[in-house]
Each structure stands twice: as C-alpha cells, then as structure tokens.
Write a structure and sequence with these properties.
Order of helices and strands: EEE
Protein name: Type VI secretion protein VgrG
Strand content: over 45%
Distance between the termini: 16 Å
Helix content: under 10%
Number of strands: 3
Number of helices: 0
Strand order of the largest sheet: 1-2-3
Length: 29
C-alpha cells in the first residue's frame, strides 16, 4: 500500500519502505 499526502507544498509518501517526505527538509527512509 502507498499513501500520498500533499500539504503546504510538502509531499509525504508512506509505503512498505517507510516514510518519505519530499519538498521539505526532512527525508526519512
């Protein structure tokens, strides 16, 4: 499953690999 959340120009993708934040200063995998 993959969940994509877009808010305030930041894209958050949650999938089986973990949490990825794009467009911001944070990226965690």
């Amino acid at each position: 499953d993959c969940v994509i959340i877009k808010a305030g120009g930041v894209e958050v993708i949650i999938d089986s690999n973990g949490l990825v934040v794009k467009g911001g200063e944070l990226k965690a995998e």
